[in-house]
Each structure stands twice: as structure tokens, then as C-alpha cells.
Design a protein that fits this description.
The structure holds two protein chains of two kinds. By secondary structure, chain A is an all-alpha fold. Helix content of chain A is 45%, strand content 0%. Chain A is built from three helices and no strands. The C terminus of chain B is likely disordered. The chains are: A mainly alpha, B mainly alpha.
Chain lengths: 74, 539
């Protein structure tokens, strides 16, 4: 079907870098990593500080994937 | 007596009036030529950039109810309440690619609601109607719960009666009617600045008064000593992760989340926000710990209402002028999501019920008019619900809401990736998941409120079989929504295979592959019209 108003190249969001996104999805669900009290950090038991630290993992990964795929895929 | 809280009341009221003024003023902000178009009233013109989207979606997802209920959960139940943190961490990488696709296809076709997309993708008006009804039913109790946030604050200031609640919602209804999505977008700035301010002060000031974090966690350890409840045990671990995962799957299926996403101006705004929104997750994690601070500060909630612990903690620890600021932050925090939710529910009604079934040739101006009136009705309904029906009922309904909104996952989220599903497969999956979910919820009692049914979302596996036979703890519980959506997907796949084998006529997919990657500046092909000639499905 003729679609003259559409860009000729096939766009895609596929990229091997996208697989990195699996890490911050799986790691926060591994209870065994954080289900304990020692060691404590600033008075926080491990259960609390480690799960809060996963936020950094999430931010870091999504930022990285965005930057790596910005030019090629969209 | 309320007179003892006069400073708090004056400051809260002043801030509330200020943001209400902003809400009315918002109609003039980035003024469109004609606000009488659903894209303008219901999606703010689809041109919000990174910052506005961050404030808007943040204010939309992290609601006043969340800020009141999550610490109340830690206060009452310990570690299980902290599921909100992994939930709001995994959500963003999960939807990173999905939301960009949803934005693109909606930009191209002029979709306003998730049901609009389902209508065009699956070619099934039945499935679109199911998605629309599911969305409206799941959103209504959520709006009602925002009132619980305001109510908790009013109770903490010992203000009697329900009239302040009604006045607050009437003001909200008026400026939403006037300004549409621009109102919560503008108010969200004030709301979030206040919330960040209050929480940063709270996590520095309150622990210093209570002898540091170690003694706060120590007090929680003492309270939950019998069950070692400040960490998880063998029976609630699976509930913890299935609830975090299931809640994450559900969040962006809610119509109000979709509204926030579709209002942004391009794909890059959405993807960058997936890295920026977790700032709110950190905030939520710290707010959750207010529940433990309340334990250490020996706060006694108003009997029968644990949701009052956070306002009472503020009242006890802060000087009264700052407690006033904190109360205003919670109350204003209720306005933003309540406004967006009512707009989203109104859009669903307009696009997928009114336009589809009542008036097919409705003009954009008529659509906007119907949506505005529908948003008023939705909010009036929420006020009536919260005044007439016990709050516990709304909480139960919201719990059910999470389970039912998950049942739109195959049609909406999987639909963004594949057009493979047969329309009848999607419909069958929806009924299977919905039926199973309701049946499981029905079997869950709540001993605390002596409800026999619909008492929670943690389902005991031992109701069905002996969990020890597969190596799990005998008391293992799982999140109902997770099981129900799993069955939904399996049924959808099986029925699709059956329909394809029988060559049952499938719906016509009006989207093409490239639509899912369209960006700002690409031509629009307008809203879906029912009689458009079919394009071949390329996906």
C-alpha cells in the first residue's frame, strides 16, 4: 500500500542493549540477597538499605540503555 | 479540639487555596486556540516536556493515599509493607520500551485511552468495551481513596464533620472542569516541592529527635519481635515478590497512568523519565519508614484508622507551622491524582462508550463537553462512596481494582508487541482471569476487620494444595493478581491457537508496524474511524 508520507526506512526499537534492562527487574526480586539485618549501614538493616540501593541500579541501567540506543534505534 | 490545631489549619487552608487558584489559572497556561477538544482538555495538548511530565506522572503515580497507606502498612505489619520499593524500582525497566510504543501508536492514530488502542489493534469493539469498563471500575475506588488521604489529615487536626471534604472535592471538580489536565500538571509542581521538602526535613529532623536510625529500627524490632517481622519469613516471601511484580505489571495499565504518558510530547521525554521517576521511589521508600518512626515515637493511631499514623507523627514531632505545611502537602497530594484519574475515567466513558455506542458522529468539541461533565459525575460518585460506605470497603475495592486492571494486560501491553492474539482469545482470557481472580479474592478472609471475603490479596496456596509438596513453606501465600493474569495469558494463547486452527474470522488490525516507532513531527492519521478501510496487518 502506498504510504508516501511515511519515512522509507524501517524503524525499530530492537537492540541487544535492551537485555540489560532484565538486570534491574530480576535483582530486586531476589529476596535471598536482602532478607537479613546484617550488615547495617547508617543504622539501616540490610533489608532496607539494599533495597533502596536497587533504585540506583534501576536508574543507572535505564540511563545507560537510553544513551546506548538513542542514535541507532528509537 | 480543633482549636489546639489552629496554626496548622490556617497554613493548610492557605496553601490549599493557593493551589486551587493555580488550578483555575492553569486554563490559560500554554493556551490552546480551542480548549473544546479532547486532546486539549484531556491530554493538555499532548505537548508536555520532560520536567512537566516528571512532575505530572510522579504526582499521578505516587498518590496521597500511597504516602499515607504505605507507612501505615509498615507501622501495622512490618517488612511486608516495604514491597512498595522493589515494586517501584522494577516498574521502569519493565515499561521502558512498552510505553514508548504506546505513545507512538497513540500519537499516530490520535488515541486518548488504552481502549482506543485495543479497538484499533484487535479490531474487537467487545474487547475495547471490556478494557474501558475494567478501567473505569478499577479507577473509581482509587479516586475515593484519595479522599482518605485528605480525611486522615482532617482527623489529625481534629476537624469534625464531612463538609471540609466535600468543599475540597467541589473545588477540585470545578478547576478540573475548567482547565482539564493542565490543572493537575501545574499543581503537581507545588505538590511535589512541598512533599520533597517535608520528607527531607522529616528524615533528618525526626530521627535526630528519636535517637537515630538504629533506635528507630530497634523499636520496630521490638514491636515485631514475635515474628521477627522487620524482615520476611518463609511464608510471606512469595507474596512479597509476586505482589511487587504483579503491582508493577498493573501500574501502567491504569488509565490515569496512560493519560500522563500520552500527554508528553515525544518518545525521548518518556524514556528519560524512566530514569528520572525513580527519584519518587526513593522518596516513597523514605516515607515508608515514617511508619517505623511512628513506632519509635510511640504514636497511637486514632482507633480503627492506622492511616492516621503519619499525620499524627507530623503533629507530634514538628512545630505546628511546619505540621501545617506537611498536612497541606498530603492534602494537595490527593488533588493531583484525583484530578488525573477522573479525567482518565471520563475520557474512557467519552471515547469508548459515548462515541462508540451512543453518538458515533460526535465532534471533538462534543467529546470534550461530555468528558468534562463525566469528570464531575465521577468525582461526585467518589465523594458519595467515601461518605456513605465505610472506608474499609474502598480499600478492599482498590485491592480488587489492582487484580482486575491486570486482566487488560494481554490486550493492551502484549498487544503493543504482537497482533498475533485472536480477538476471541483476548476476550476468553479476560473472562478466565477475571473469574479466577474474583473467586480467589472471595476466599480470602480478613481477621482484623472480621470480613469473611475480599479481605486481602494474599492467597494461601494451602487452600488448593499442599505447598510443602513442591518445597515451599506450608503457609506460603501469593498475590492473587499474579496468578489470575497468568491464567488469563494461557487461556488467551490456547483460544487463539484454537481460533486460528478453526479459521475463525479475526478482527482487522488498523495499525501498521511503523506506527509503533513514530515520533514527534511524524504525520498523524487521525483518530480511528470505525469504517476505515482495512490496512494489512504487518506485525
Amino acid at each position: 500500500m502506498a504510504q508516501p508520507d511515511r519515512p522509507p526506512t524501517q524503524r525499530t526499537d530492537r537492540s541487544p542493549w535492551n537485555w540489560l534492562l532484565v538486570i534491574p527487574i530480576v535483582v530486586p526480586l531476589l529476596v535471598v540477597l536482602y532478607n537479613g539485618k546484617a550488615p547495617t549501614l547508617f543504622g539501616f538493616p540490610r533489608f532496607y538499605w539494599l533495597q533502596l540501593a536497587f533504585i540506583i541500579l534501576g536508574v543507572g541501567t535505564t540511563t545507560l540503555v537510553y544513551q546506548l540506543t538513542k542514535k541507532t534505534g528509537r | 479540639m480543633w482549636r489546639d490545631h489552629l496554626t496548622e489549619i490556617i497554613i493548610t487552608t492557605a496553601l490549599f487555596l493557593f493551589v486551587s487558584g493555580l488550578g483555575f489559572f492553569a486554563a490559560r497556561w500554554r493556551r490552546a486556540d480551542d480548549l473544546r477538544h479532547l486532546d486539549e482538555w484531556g491530554l493538555g495538548g499532548r505537548k508536555f516536556g520532560g520536567w512537566i511530565t516528571w512532575f505530572l506522572v510522579g504526582g499521578d503515580l505516587y498518590t496521597a493515599y500511597t504516602f499515607v497507606a504505605v507507612p501505615a502498612l509498615l507501622f501495622g505489619a512490618g517488612a511486608t509493607g516495604f514491597f512498595a520499593v522493589p515494586y517501584t524500582v522494577i516498574i521502569y525497566p519493565m515499561v521502558f520500551l512498552v510505553l514508548a510504543r504506546l505513545w507512538s501508536v497513540s500519537h499516530r492514530h490520535g488515541f486518548v485511552t488504552p481502549a482506543d488502542f485495543v479497538r484499533s489493534r484487535s479490531g474487537s469493539s467487545t474487547m475495547a468495551l471490556l478494557v474501558a469498563i475494567t478501567g473505569i471500575v478499577a479507577t473509581m475506588p482509587y479516586i475515593a481513596l484519595q479522599l482518605v488521604g485528605i480525611e486522615a489529615v482532617l482527623k489529625a487536626m481534629r476537624i469534625p464533620g464531612t463538609w471540609p471534604l466535600i468543599v475540597a472535592f467541589a473545588v477540585l471538580a470545578a478547576f478540573t472542569y475548567q482547565s482539564g489536565l493542565r490543572a493537575p500538571a501545574m499543581i503537581a509542581f507545588v505538590k511535589d516541592i512541598l512533599i520533597y521538602l517535608v520528607i527531607i526535613v522529616a528524615i533528618i529532623y525526626i530521627p535526630s529527635k528519636l535517637g537515630g536510625w538504629a533506635s528507630i529500627f530497634g523499636a520496630a524490632d521490638t514491636k515485631f519481635k514475635a515474628t521477627n517481622g522487620t524482615i520476611l519469613n518463609a511464608s510471606n516471601q512469595w507474596q512479597y515478590i509476586t505482589l511487587a511484580f504483579g503491582s508493577a505489571l498493573a501500574l501502567f495499565l491504569y488509565p490515569h497512568s496512560v493519560t500522563g504518558v500520552l500527554a508528553s510530547k515525544n518518545r525521548g521525554v518518556i524514556k528519560r523519565n524512566m530514569s528520572a521517576l525513580p527519584a519518587y521511589s526513593l522518596l516513597l521508600g523514605l516515607i515508608a519508614l515514617l511508619g517505623y518512626m511512628a513506632i519509635a515515637a510511640k504514636v497511637a493511631p486514632i482507633p480503627g484508622d492506622n492511616n492516621t499514623v503519619v499525620p499524627l507523627l507530623f503533629d507530634k514531632m514538628f512545630p505546628s507551622w511546619f505540621a501545617g505545611v506537611a498536612f497541606a502537602a498530603v492534602a494537595i497530594g490527593a488533588l493531583v491524582p484525583a484530578a488525573i484519574m477522573s479525567i482518565a475515567a471520563a475520557n474512557l466513558f467519552t471515547r469508548n462508550i459515548y462515541k462508540e455506542y451512543l453518538k458515533r458522529d460526535a465532534t471533538p468539541a462534543q467529546e470534550a463537553g461530555v468528558s468534562k461533565v463525566a469528570s464531575l459525575i465521577v468525582k461526585a460518585g467518589a465523594v458519595v462512596v467515601i461518605i456513605i460506605i465505610p472506608v474499609q470497603f474502598s480499600i478492599d475495592l482498590q485491592l480488587i481494582g489492582g487484580v482486575i486492571i491486570l486482566q487488560t494486560l494481554p490486550a493492551v501491553a502484549l498487544g503493543l508487541y504482537t497482533g498475533w492474539f485472536h480477538r476471541w482469545g483476548l476476550v476468553a482470557g479476560w473472562f478466565a482471569g477475571m473469574g479466577l481472580g474474583m473467586w480467589m479474592l472471595y476466599q480470602i478472609p480478613n481477621p482484623a476487620t472480621s470480613h469473611k471475603h475480599f479481605g486481602g490479596s494474599a492467597f494461601k496456596l494451602s487452600t488448593w494444595f499442599d505447598p510443602t509438596s513442591i518445597g515451599l513453606n506450608a503457609n506460603t501465600t501469593v498475590y492473587v493478581g499474579f496468578v489470575a493474569v497468568l491464567v488469563n495469558v494461557i487461556v488467551a494463547v490456547l483460544i487463539t491457537m484454537l481460533c486460528k486452527a478453526l479459521k475463525a474470522p479475526d478482527g482487522v488490525d488498523l495499525t501498521t508496524r511503523d506506527d509503533y516507532f513514530a515520533d514527534e513531527g511524524d504525520p498523524r492519521i487521525g483518530p480511528p474511524t470505525v469504517d476505515t478501510p482495512a490496512e494489512p496487518a504487518l506485525l
